[in-house]
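Worked Example 4.2. Consider the chain below.
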Amino acid sequence: MSQHFIAELHIIHADLPLAPTLRTVTDANITVESQPLTYPDRSGPISFYSATDCDFETLESVFDDDHTVAEWQLSMAFPDRRIYQIYHSAVAKFTTPEIADIGIQLLSVHNGDRGWRVRLHAPDRAHLGDYWEYCREEDIQVTLEKLYSTGPRARSVGTDRPDLSLTDRQREVARTAARMGYYEPDGASADEVAAELGISPSTLSTHLRRIMAKLFQQLFVD
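Applying the procedure from the previous section yields the following structure tokens:
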């Protein structure tokens, strides 16, 4: 079996689908059930989302003010979960068509930290690098959260240069985030890590973006 890669990325942009909703309703768990895999020939691409752990009436009121939403419909309602059919506006910026064009398989998409967490399966690092470069060109903020290799010797992928040429402060931030479980599903939040370091969450985000950019540079750029 050849070695493939699974990457978990966090992407943020003001025009990503439901971006204003994700910034407003931070307690909701929203999962993308389907998104267009080709660029629409007309405005109004349709997506399906499931939502849990939130006040549904509040969520639906936010849909009405979301500039990426043209119309929405409630498809199914359960006591603890609702599924919505969203007709997106022409300004909504999708990355799923690019993922398909590059030759990467989309495994899952769910919200987190006011953006989308995307899990991808790629045949090699070059394909992931192509997607990262596309995001940079589109001014989409992208952070690599986890990267795994698959195959006979599956492992979590790191780097041949452990320090990645990080500054002392960046190493401190990286170690603190890892120690507090920031990258684990049930680990510390960004606010908790920032408080431990004595910095603001926005400063923590800046540090982590620069650290991840160096990791991407190490892994994907020749």
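The first strand starts at residue 4 and ends at 12. The longest helix spans residues 201-220. Compare this with Example 4.1 before moving on.
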